[in-house]
Amino acid sequence: MANKIYADAKGALDGLLFDGMTIMAGGFGLCGIPENLIAEIQKSGVKNLTVISNNAGVDGFGLGVLLNSKQVKKMISSYVGENKEFERQYLSGELELEFNPQGTMAERCRAGGAGIPAFYTKTGVGTLVAEGKETRVFNGETYVMETGLVADLSIVKAYKGDTQGNLIYNKTARNFNPMMAMAGKVTVAEVEELVPTGDLDPDEIHTPGIFVQRIIKGAFEKRIEQRTVRKREAV
Asked: Is 93 helix (H, G, I), strand (E, B) or coil?
């Protein structure tokens, strides 16, 4: 049985990175992002990347570090509103952007992981999202065709994993990590807690180890994307 455990992010990414590749990066906002793997990709200097991610991180953290170092050529995303450098690069023509409705993007990743090349959805019909895409009518309603997404590499973050790559995500981190773990030609996972095979309840596993080729135990900063507080009510 192949050993999937690597000592660190550098070792886990060894031999996987190349210029012009497509990378899926899991997470929702800054929740459940593979911080260690993103940092190592930045250090590697690999460039002209197409990055598929729900968002583009924030300035100086998450995927924001790859934007700051000009390693990203194109983003396929659904929300990018927290990153001023992203805005600057996009508006200046330095960065390509393929916008997706959030549910459509999640389904595109799921479809790619399931081997489904395309599907039809009503979301985006009659808007810029549908421009240049095939449409069909089903039961009197118009639908737009969206293609499944597959990446050269998927990087994901889980709360807990075992030595065979079975993963459990914590709450909001389940939004994009599970389907992206399925849609990578190679998937590397980083986890908060690494346990022996057999320690995880099979009923609680979200990503089966068959989808994960390499795994590391990471250390995480876990920044808050937008800290929102309210004043205490007078007692």
From this structure: coil
